[in-house]
Amino acid sequence: MSMRLGPRVGEVIDRDEPLSFTWNGRTYPGYAGDTIASALAACGVRVFSRSFKYHRPRGLLTASHLDPGCMVQVDDEPNVRGAHRRVRPGMDVRSQDTWPTLSFDVKAANELARRMLPAGFYYKTFMSPGWLWPAYERVLERFAHGGVVGPGKVSALDGNERYDKRHAHPDVLVAGGGPAGMAAAVTAARSGCSVMLVEEELELGGHLRWGDDVDLTALSELRGRVAATPGIEVLTDAVVLGRYDGNEISVLQRGLPHVAERLVKARARTLVAAPGLIERPYVFAGNDVPGVMLSTAVRRLVNLHAVKPGDRAVVLTANADGDATALDLERAGVEVTRVDARRGGDVTRALGRGRVRAVELGDGRRVECDLLVTATGWTSAVSLLTMAGDQPRYDDTAARFRPDASRLPSDVMATGGVVGDGSCAQLVAHGEATGREAARRSAQSSVTASAAPPPLPVEPHPALFRGRTHGMVDFSEDVSSKDLFTAVEEGFRCPELAKRYTTATMGPAQGKLESVNVVAIIAEATGAAIAETGTTTWRPPYAPVSLGALAGRLREPTRLSPLASWHHSHGAAPLVAGAWIRPDHYGDPVAEAASVRDGVGIIDVTPIGKIDLRGPDVSRLLNLVYVNKWSKLEVGRVRYGVMCGEDGVVIDDGVTGRLAEDRYLMSTTSSGAVTVWEWLESWLQTERPQWRVHATPVTTSYASINVAGPRSRDLLARVVDDVDVAPEAFPYMHVRTGRLAGVPGCVVWRIGFTGELSFELHVPAGYGLHVWERLLEAGRDLGVRPFGVEAQRILRLEKGHLIVGQDTDATTKAYGAALDGLVKLDKDDFVGRPELSWGGQPGDGQRLVGLRMSPDSLVPAEGSQLLDHRGLICGRVTSSRLSPALGRAVCLAQVEAALAEPGRQVTVRLVDGGTARAAVTEQLAQVDPEGVRLRA
Amino acid sequence: MAEAYSALALLRHGVTGRSWTPMWRERPLERGYPVVIIGGGVHGLATAYYLAANHGVTNVAVLDKGYLGGGGSGRNTAILRSNYLTVEGVRFYDRSLELYRGMASALNFNVMFSRRGHLTLAHSDTSLRTMRWRAEVNKASGVDSEVIGPDEVKRLVPEMDTSATARYPVLGALHHPPGGIVRHDAVVWGYARAADRLGVHLHQHTEVTGIEVSGGRVTGVRTNRGPIATPVVLNATAGWASTVSDMAGVPLPVQTFPLQAAVTEPVKPFLRTVVVSGTLHVYVSQTARGELVFGASVDPFASYSTRGSLEFTEGLAGHVLQLMPSLAKLRLLRQWAGLCDMTPDFAPVMGATDVAGFFLDVGWGTYGFKAGPVAGEAMAECIATGQTPEIISAFGLDRFAQGRLVGEKGAAAVGH
Amino acid sequence: MILLPCPWCGPRDADEFGYAGEIRPRPDPSTTTPAEWRGYLYLRRNTAGWTRERWFHRMGCRRYLVLERDTTNNDVRPSTDASSGSGS
Ligand SMILES: Cc1cc2nc3c(=O)[nH]c(=O)nc-3n(C[C@H](O)[C@H](O)[C@H](O)COP(=O)(O)OP(=O)(O)OC[C@H]3O[C@@H](n4cnc5c(N)ncnc54)[C@H](O)[C@@H]3O)c2cc1C
Ligand SMILES: [Zn+2]
């Protein structure tokens, strides 16, 4: 049955562009410009969804983006606002959470038990027997009300489904494109401001769009002005989601080519909120039966979409909009019975299930009809303003909450229906005054509030919230006024608690329709005035926003060394290490380790933190931040150092070399690169500002390559140009600078994390690959091969070198890391000194030790716990590997200080629950404890 | 007197249409109480309940400046677990889980504890090592936790991107089957109702503005509704802990940080476990209503403002989509923030202080909801007996002066 | 997001900065006592209201700076540059 009317003056459908789409599997016609809901309504569809708890049939209520009765699944997108989304050819639209069908839904049986299922019923039952609760839980879950997401449902994001972001800095952002908003935008732009005008609906105009001829004339005149004024950017189908600190305003833009949605992050100098009014539903029995609609819904359907919402209507009107709706209906050929609330008329009940069949009036009359229209009042759309600090006050005259402009910060203003009433001309005048003032404020660097526009009139309106019967308050949550009365009776007298108890306002409608009714009904139930019952806190987002839009494009930076492409093309297995992706190994870590022990290997250690330190006071800085002594470090030497926090906890380690009189290069752990640098800066800038030191992070300025193994000197000798690498000329723990493979400006230090003779080369990053390839080429006959992080870990563990953060944790002090020897308490100050001088007594805390397992090839997982003779936890394995060099397990462990003596036995609790024995070793190093190989 | 809840009672009320008695009463504020508890969150209410139920101390006042549960207790994401890193921590939180399991019948109030398992994802070998460490401490303490591989993660959460090419690949996870979620408001109301039944006075909208101390002892509190004489005051004000402690002259090792959370529109249930990713700073669970509840790490700077930020939702969404790309079209419905009283060692501050009669139950940071029952039980014992129960002995304020911090930070701060 | 007034760079998004916390005077390490030192390490004023605190302009001038902020609403006003010393 077609409900499509003949052409209307203000219609937005394009009758020249018919299309078709499917609804629950059946094909329906529509026109371009139709919403999903209007197209279906034009075909006589009245039921779009089922309610949350009782699965009552639901139809259109507001016929706008706020409509709780028309949430549908569109293709793979759940919870689409069907009364806002434009229908597109071929769309697959389905009702949500209905089974087996929308018209026959088995869960509607809940309605029968409704009296047993009051608000919060689930708190009162299923307590025992406890073991049955999980089964109940599964049943409750079935009632989750919404669409479907997940794999199988969602296609991978393709071309059109990207999301992106935009940053904008308009002088004035106007939220709401009704008459006042348009006027404000035009005036602000004419004053020279850049203006962003944001409108949630598909075109500018606000309520003028569905108004009468006078409204339509005003509309086209205003639209013309907006279009003719330079400096206004209009965003339609775009909603202001929130106002955050610093006047940061988030806007979600839809309907764009190329992207699914776009998040605009606007820093506006001044925000002008012109969000208008939201029509408030009336609470009475049957107010959710399909066919009960708000007056604005009817005017949208009739005047914008040329849809006849019914054949016989009752119009309950308390204001001019209700009166105009009745006229619109009559013009559309609908038979209308007017009930005037201003003269005591009332509706007590709507009868019918799938659709309204009759209405009972306050005077006892019963009127047969298929449409009941209510026009009982307005809610100011204050949420944006409350996000800026406003606390709206209840206005008895207007029977609505209105913003309290005095609480707004000076960079936020309001205009239009949200602040007051008035004719279109008055609203426009107010908008203009506001736009002018906004421009004035935006022009100033330090804003001083001044001329607020003269106030709009406030027209009296009867206070209509609930009639004489109980009805639905929150349509998306199925919460009735009866539920709220029950909540108050049970002690939930404060609206915040009553809402939580009943879940009113918690649903997808976010309280925009029902919030004030909730407050009014609680006030009624508690006997308090609405004004003192209070309003609610509005939290962003103003409209639900997709995760895709919020996320935008993936923003996870990845750091790659200049050698990354080489690693990739040589089969390196990637290892995610913080921001870096590193080669874990090239296929066989054990062989890689062996080649370092027997010949020579090279590893890319670019992520090692590097800080260039210059100035006369560097050695004082080193003395301060490291626990060991630095004043006597000669030019050409490097030294290992450990840093502690002020609490004595080890935070980083590395070597620092003195390259010249007042030039040093410090290395840090990879993960510590940034924190250590900021740490140095904090000491230099706050506690020791008189010291003259420049600290420059140079981690990525160099590619770092470690050449390790007994043949490393031979290999290096073939690529150095002007550095003498002979043992006497370049001893262990020394540093040289010079030219490698033709590359000037390289730094080479002789150190040995792997425990083998080794040289660490820091090469200007752009030449890293060149030097790497030269090393491989020059060392072919030496059997040189690249090794990855895993081989390095094996080697360092055999050597007993600790890794900060693995063999230590956030509570390990220097002595707990077996670094007592390094700590020089005789320095007058260094970071961590007080704590280190008080702590470290035997028996205090844990110590790092080596472990020898029995059986000795058993490798306990890292993290395995150590148990003492009483079976209590006394430590843990921090590192473990099977040593290729020794053919047995090598482990480091943290163990209670009392047990940290060579030869002490502990029990290792294995991951599978079994146990093994282990003994504390003499030294941490299991291979070459004397360090002969290092010093070769 | 309040009647008992049951299916039968629901039926009776349904048939007769008789109304329910209030869950708690509004009573006059008395001039003095033997015990005054500041803070009507889960901690304050649980302590009041256990004082009355376990120790017969019923003449207790709970004061809150707002409504019951209006602080962290009504804003948290209600994740329960006991897979902590230290032995003290595991034992403590496990007792709390035990109390949660029995809570519905003990309080005659369904708190909807949903035991659904808890997954902490490891995206690097470093975090995998920490997961193993936690699992091993848990198992050694008799708590069910195990490290599982990516395939098992995929089986538990089919929506998860477990491909090796993900920016932060899922290398495994700490799986903790006893973990789950609970209905936070129900816990607050359940304790409030049970405490009220035993005679405890609950005073909402009653703000403490001063604490009277004389000769090193507490003698009373001042409130916006007048003074109250009392020898015992418990500070259970979480995010506001420092402001209340200042009134008694007891400085705290606490900094208040906002923690934000958000919830989506409901969709049909598909996520059965709680999923946490430390690397991506995000955690997610799905409620029985079908909403996804998200949380993240605390805001980057200390503040008492609960306004929330856009950047939080942006980061959150990005991280969620890295884990579950198929959720791009799901819509975020609401965001909010609560205040967290962070301590340097990620462990609470509980017990007596140098001011006689002034007790602390603070430092609950981002993890204190799950501790509500055990903390209430222990603080009730502490107040009633004057002895510090063994189960909270590691958490005293004096540990800071002694430099003996709890090792829980090991799990939180090994950031490599 | 709040804007912080950097004396060198002007107003910038707070996420360009690292938060270094409320300003605490560091006791003289050579004469301090455990109680005093641990007070410095762990105790915080945690004021609800105006505080003086240090920020690091990590993604800008790389200077530590001192600001005043009202922790109840995050209003910010400038203070002196950090290089004027540790302050208290
Ligand atoms: C977003 C978020 C998510 C979280 N997620 C989890 C989680 O998943 N799991 C978990 O275990 N924990 C979580 N937490 C932490 C948890 O919420 C808190 O640790 C816990 O609720 C603290 O409870 P409480 O009773 O101590 O304090 P609160 O519930 O905060 O109660 C303190 C009360 O003190 C009142 N008060 C303050 N000052 C005064 C005064 N001067 N006079 C009178 N009354 C006063 C306040 O009004 C408040 O009601 C989360 C926290 C947040 C913010
Ligand atoms: Zn700067």
Automatic annotation (TrEMBL), chain C:
One of its GO terms (molecular function) is sarcosine oxidase activity. InterPro entries: SoxD (IPR006279), SoxD_sf (IPR038561). One of its GO terms (biological process) is tetrahydrofolate metabolic process. This is Sarcosine oxidase subunit delta. It comes from uncultured Nocardioidaceae bacterium.
